[in-house]
Amino acid sequence: LFFFKYGNFIDKLRLFTRGGSGGMGYPRLGGEGGKGGDVWVVAQNRMTLKQLKDRYPQKRFVAGVGANSKISALKGSKGKDCEIPVPVGISVTDENGKIIGELNKENDRILVAQGGLGGKLLTNFLPLKGQKRIIHLDLKLIADVGLVGFPNAGKSSLLSCVSHAKPAIADYACKCNLIISVADLPGLIEGAHMNKGMGHKFLKHIERTRQLLFVVDISGFQLSSHTQYRTAFETIILLTKELELYKEELQTKPALLAVNKMDLPDAQDKFHELMSQLQNPKDFLHLFEKNMIPERTVEFQHIIPISAVTGEGIEELKNCIRKSLDEQANQENDALHKKQLLNLWISDTISSTEPPSKHAVTTSKMDII
């Protein structure tokens, strides 16, 4: 499992790239200079844009110069390529917003700036400069699972508990060798859809996760003494409403619910009450003001009672996350397979209905004999 704290999130980065210049030719002997090195963007699993920015604060990437032609080596060697390490899920665009390419899995690579040609007869043995290009990196998918909850719901505690580590990025050895990334995003507050708090920044990142993990405090939530106390059920309804008001499509993402702080007194009674409310949410919506009621309530694939303090339910939660992601991946693969079959069927149908061309060769029974 990979775990990303919100503070590490940079979802856009602007970089200067330049291919290396070619090497000088050797006019007297017709020698060709080496081509300049190229600049590539390469996807790596354990990489973030923040790491890239911290490692290369100047954000300039220039490839090596091609070797000059000389008597001992008339054909100059190519300049050293420059590779820019980026996280998986990056879209690369140029200064005009035109998409250069996308990096969707580890080791995917895109050429962003070509090296210049070495000096040769066509260039009067003078080398050409490498291509200059400003590129923009845009992170499309930041994590498999995004944690959704109000402040103090215990999201960060849960993350530390699950990963058994305090660093911003930690490894967890899954039994199934599956890599799962979990984004710990800042707590929502009521009115986030109107950009209160870190509203839009949070919700934009939630768009870029495959699934949602709601984390609620079983004892409820109150932001301050000046705000209204909310029960766990009310918290879920309000979180759902905030997602809906920002973008309705967010509600279509697969969702799980972790009910935290089950080590507190009366937690079991409150959990049974919450389960009753979630099984028949419409029976309790009359308790809310009309503008607080979402158009549709979230149907959780799994509801897991946990305690980030005692570790209760943590293993079950991890298993449910893996199971849910596996199910989603299978559904996406099935949908892709059906689409491919449909396209193949359409292609066959079109080709079979097309009249034979005038120059088509037909085979008669006599020919076969």
From TrEMBL:
Q: Which Pfam families match?
A: GTP1_OBG (PF01018), MMR_HSR1 (PF01926)
Q: Name one GO biological process term.
A: ribosome biogenesis
Give the primary localization class. nucleus
**Which keywords belong to this entry?**
GTP-binding, Nucleotide-binding, Nucleus, Ribosome biogenesis
Instruction: Please list the residue ranges annotated as the Obg domain.
Output: 7-142
Which region is the signal sequence?
none
- Where in the numbering of this chain does the OBG-type G domain appear? 143-326
PROSITE patterns of this UniProt entry? G_OBG (PS51710), OBG (PS51883)
Location of this chain's protein in the cell: Nucleus, Nucleolus
- The transmembrane residues are none
GO cellular component, as recorded:
mitochondrion; nucleolus
The terms under GO molecular function for this entry are: GTP binding; GTPase activity; magnesium ion binding
Q: Which family does it belong to?
A: Belongs to the TRAFAC class OBG-HflX-like GTPase superfamily. OBG GTPase family.
Instruction: State the name under which the record lists this protein.
Output: GTP-binding protein 10
Q: From which lineage does this chain's organism come?
A: Eukaryota, Metazoa, Chordata, Craniata, Vertebrata
